[in-house]
Amino acid sequence: MMLICCPHCQRKNRLDASRLSAAPVCGACKQPLFNGQPTAVDANGFARHAGADLPLVVDFWAAWCGPCRQFAPTFSQSCSQHEPRARFLKVDTEAAPDLAARFGIRSIPTLLIVHQGKEVARVNGALPAGEFDRWLRSQLPTAG
């Protein structure tokens, strides 16, 4: 059994790993547990997702950052391709400066893979889609 945090209501759900690809829904809000889109979170939302069993792919960004806005479609497309292997989160560094400081974010966009609350991998900058996909494929197996 795995703990999966709902991207809509942030409730944790127990789910057999064999059911991850069977379009599971949240037991509380009845929304899909995987919707193919990144989930915007603050520090509290991040903590709830970090306490679940899926590796997290986290995009630290800001609205004023041109490269962040340019990278957003690549991040969204990767989410639709890699769920349910990982949960994709977006953290606005302006809205969650303490979370950015906790991970030592010095430039944006910064992309992390976090598993069980610990950073597993990091890359800085707005990567081209193919490079980001290769990075994810090389790192996700080590995270989960």
From TrEMBL:
Pfam families on file: Thioredoxin, Zn_ribbon_Thio2
Keyword annotations from UniProtKB, A to Z: Disulfide bond, Electron transport, Metal-binding, Redox-active center, Transport
Superkingdom of this protein's organism: Bacteria
GO function terms (MF aspect): metal ion binding; protein-disulfide reductase activity
One GO CC term, this protein: cytosol
Identification of the protein by name: Thioredoxin
Alphabetical list of SUPFAM superfamilies matching this protein: Thioredoxin-like (SSF52833)
Family (UniProt): Belongs to the thioredoxin family.
Species of origin: Halopseudomonas oceani
Domain Thioredoxin: 17-141
